[in-house]
Structures are given as structure tokens and as C-alpha cells.
Amino acid sequence: MTSPVDRLKEKTTKENLWIYILSILEENDAYGYELRASIAKKFGFKPGNVTAYRVLYSLKRNSFVETFEKKVNGRKRKYYRITKKGKEELKQGKDFLGEIKALL
């Protein structure tokens, strides 16, 4: 049986990956693989490849992030950057989490 704390961690990390992705992109533009590594380093969990890209595509489709190409070491990479709309959504998400923390 999974403990309540393990379920809480699952729900607040992998199932809400968007807030972690936008937090990373608020600091720097990044490409997909780099985002996963940054999440692992900063937040202590590594999302799956498919999951991370599904969330990125959804964020892009809803205009929370945008893409651009950049040449790195002679190779084109698709980079992601947070948009103004994404920054507003991230702020609302952080504010909501702060409200929950204050209640506990």
C-alpha cells in the first residue's frame, strides 16, 4: 500500500509538472532534455520523457510557452521560453500553493 505522503508527493510533482516546468523557464530558456535534468536537480524528481513533452506541448498549445530554434555546437535545438501568459499562470499557481501552506 502506498502511504498518504507518497501519494501527496506524486500528486504535487508528476501530476502537476506544469508548475515545475514554468518555474525553470522563468529562470532560463531551455530545451526539453535540459528541462528534465533541471527539474531533477532543483526539485529532486525526474519526470518521464513522454510526460515532460506532453506537458510542454500542452503549455505551448495554450500559449504558456513558446518555442524557438537555436544552434548549439552546430546543431539546431528547439528551445522553450515562458510567455507573459505563462508567467501570470505560474504566479497564480504559486499563490495558490502559498495559500494552502498558510492554512496548514
Write up what this structure looks like.
With 104 residues, the chain is α+β, with helices and mostly antiparallel strands. 62% of the residues lie in helices and 17% in strands. The protein contains five helices and three strands. It has helices at 4-12, 17-27, 32-43, 49-61, 84-103; strands spanning 30-31, 65-72, 75-82. It has a three-stranded antiparallel β-sheet. A hairpin with a 2-residue loop joins strand 2 and strand 3 (75-82). The mean pLDDT is 93.
Question: What key phrases describe this protein's structure?
Answer:
Arc Repressor Mutant, subunit A; 3 strands
CA-based shape: globular
What low-confidence regions span 5 or more consecutive residues with pLDDT below 50?
Answer: none
Strand percentage: 15-25%
Describe the biggest sheet? 3 strands, antiparallel
State the share of residues found in helices, binned by percent.
Answer: 55-70%
CATH homology group: Winged helix-like DNA-binding domain superfamily/Winged helix DNA-binding domain
Query: Roughly how many Å apart are the termini?
Result: 25 Å
CATH architectural arrangement: Orthogonal Bundle
What is the number of strand segments?
3
Number of continuous helical runs = 5
What is the N-to-C succession of helices and strands? Answer: HHEHHEEH
CATH C-level class: Mainly Alpha
